[in-house]
Amino acid sequence: MRLFYLFAFCITVFVARAQQSTFDADNDNWGAEGDPLGTMAGWASMGGLPGGHIRVTDAATGGIWYFTAPAKFRGNKCGAYDRWFRYDQFTSDTMNQIFSTDPGDLEIWGDNNLKLVFDNTNNPGLNWTHYDVHLREDAGWRIGSSNGPVPTEAEFRSVLSNITKIRIKGEYRPAADFGGLDNVILENNFQFDLDDDDSSGAGGNDFRSDTLCTAEATVTDADIVFVSELPIDSVVVRVLGADSDDLLASGALPPQISVAPTSTPGYLVFVNNGNASTADFIAALLTVVYLDLSSTPERGERLLGINAFTECGDMGIRFVYLPIFPPPDAGLDADTIVCAASGPLQLFQVLNGNPEAGGFWSPRPEGGPSLFDPAKDAPGVYQYIIPPAGECPGDTAAVEISVEFPPALRADTTACYTDTLVLSVPGGLVSWQWSDGSHQRDRIVSFSGVYTLTGATENCVFTDSVQIGFYTCEPCAWYAPNVFSPNDDGHNDGWHIFLPCLWQTFRLEIFDRWGSLVFAADDPETEWDGYNKSGAPVPGVYIWRIEWVGELFGIPHIYRAAGDVTIVR
User: Fold this and answer.
1) What is the DSSP string of 38-98?
2) For residue 160, which phi and psi values (nearest 5 degrees)?
3) What Cα–Cα distance (Å) separates residue 389 from each residue in 299, 370, 386?
4) CB 3.0 to 4.6 Å from 406: which of 131, 349, 433, 462, for a disulfide?
5) Looking at 286-328, which runs of residues are DSSP E strands?
6) Is 279 helix (H, G, I), strand (E, B) or coil?
7) Are the CB atoms for 132 and 105 separated by under 8 Å?
8) Hey, how many other C-beta atoms are within 10 angstroms of the C-beta on 147?
9) In Å, how far from its chain's centre is CA 166?
């Protein structure tokens, strides 16, 4: 930067059609990088030249901070060649300024990081300082840095044909400061805006139509603007993500414009026959209609792109947003029966007719957005709702769901061995089979176990099981003989306890008259042959005692007894 101060206000020259930011309403998406406190430029509604302006505060952690331009200043700006880049700037402090010529004050970046650098004659002052920078290779520009080589015309035009970044230096001293920017203009002889006053809400150069209730729409607003000093070679209109049912059609065209033949649906190319003006292309675009020819057009937003081509090539895409919501078909009402033990049911598949996707269910099933789970969801009426969009109507269909629960066998049961227990097939079954293969309606049960029945109604197949148990309801009637004769005559030669009941543990012990143990057994079926330790039966009286554990009312019961038995010859 060459040392020079300008203490005067300069009047900004506005160009009717250019990329510009006046900052009268907001910060216009300008950012900051390098060493700022934030990455977005702040906006002040007053203090500009005139009106609002933006400002950035130095973080003072090292490095140089810059204002960075938003998207509308980027892209193909080849029409700006030999025109001007203009802006107004101030700095908060001019003490101890840096006067290095590298880096420069204005940078324009293109493909392959090719950077054009311009060094202004003077630093910004405490008041607004105006800058006009000529966009030509011989106006003082350099490549890479303020000390770099002078660009060629081809290099300069190459950068302008695809600007990837513009930044304006804001820091001019090593200490903390802040700076302001206003009235940024990139003069350009090209402007293509599908909605000049942005009344559609799309912003930028794009267009968004009102919500449409039919699958047919125009693709520009009535106030479309098309300005270019360079001849327009062609304009391409295409449906982004088009399928075979998307179509673009045009009406009567100016004689200077024709439509290039193409077999691609959703693709329209307007060609300059030789002397077509931008007004002719505007007239052609105003005739374009988007059509969805499918029998059931999908509800939702269509996205179109419009590109204009000059001798500079593609001048950038403009987007068209078409929210299309034709009357939907939610299908026809239906009813169904769901088996309680079945898995989740896809409600959408139950609807009759030809329901369209994109709706929601009310009430919302617990099993998922459209999954009715009989284990979680209550039977009743579930509505499938495709909501309206704006003034475009929606549609509703309903599914009534009944849940069939299985008929049940009796509850798990325990009975006395002396009882008679009957299992009966529940009503409502049209066929059934027990787990052993039998088909009895009434089944007498005498043994403990699990009894399983599989049966079918008119709609469902169910399986149910019941656990049956038996227990002893009276004390066991055991018996102990009081005499036997172990004389090998084949009659009454052995002695044991007669125990006709189930037992878990058993212990028998027999003692002689002197209290000596002569016999023991752990099984009631084990007989005593009358022999004692001497090895031969000795007539007389012997004492016995028993202890065993059986079952009574389903729980263990301890029996104890004692007595005597006489051995006779």
Assistant:
1) SSB-EEESSSSSSS-EEEEEB--SSS--EEE--GGGSB--GGGTTSEEEEEEEES--TT--
2) -65, -25
3) 9, 21, 9
4) 462
5) 289-292, 300-310, 313-324
6) helix
7) no
8) 11
9) 37
> At 113, phi and psi to the nearest 5?
60, 25
Distance, in Å, from the CA atom of 452 to the CA atom of 406, rounded to the nearest integer, reads: 13
Neighbours of 527 (CB within 10 A): 15
Q: Is 73 exposed, middle or buried (0-12, 13-18, 19+ CB in 10 A)?
A: buried
Of the candidates 312, 21, 319, 14, which has an alpha carbon nearest to the alpha carbon of residue 163?
Answer: 312
In order, the DSSP letters of 318-381 are EEEEEEE-PPP---B-EEEEEETTS--EEGGGT-BS-PPSS-EEESPPTTSSSEE-TTTSPSEE
Q: Which spans in 146-190 are helix H?
A: 153-161
Structure tokens at 446: 């005498």
**Angstrom distance (rounded) from CA 328 to CA 294:** 13
Sign of the C-alpha dihedral computed for residues 459, 465, 466 and 468 taken in this order: positive
Kindly state the tokens that stand for 297: 């057009």
Q: What share of the chain is helix, strand, coil (3-state, %, to 5)?
A: 5, 40, 55
Query: ∠ CA(158), CA(161), CA(166), 5° rounding?
Result: 95
- The pTM of the whole model exceeds 0.85: no
pLDDT digits over 225-271, tens only?
999 888 999 999 999 987 778 888 888 999 999 999 887 888 899 99
As given in the structure block, the two tokens for residue 525 are 């079926």
